[in-house]
Amino acid sequence: MQLIDTVPIPVCHPKRARQRAIFLDDPILQPSYGYCPSKDWHYFGLKGGLRISSLGKIVAAPLLPASPHDKNLLGSLLPDVPASTTIYGDKGFIDLDEQVKLTEDWGHLCQNSPSSARYMIDRPFGSIRWAIVSDD
């Protein structure tokens, strides 16, 4: 089992992108404009990709361009993963074409339940745990 995710790495505010003094001469790391939907935040910089094993060891940590969507960066995060490995990632990595490809390559693809369905399960267990903790 492995986990994948990306995190924004801002170099500077987008308004100051033309005035930056770093990464100007680097042929490999060229920052670009990106958007982080979870924070509703525009930034200028890179994306840090992470692939973590079930033991908590970082297997891969590439620096990626900020502008492409996560679904376009999946190949950069999974270059040498064995076919028997289960990969967990958020829905930003999957589109319909990728679902079909992953199902053909690895056999099946699981999706997390919507939060409304999880609420019916999580709420009773949360109140039971609270009741047990509060009785002490």
Automatic annotation (TrEMBL):
Residue ranges of domain Transposase DDE in the record: 2-104
Pfam families reported in the protein's UniProt record: DDE_Tnp_1_3
Top-level taxon: Bacteria
Protein's recorded name: Transposase DDE domain-containing protein
Native species: candidate division KSB3 bacterium
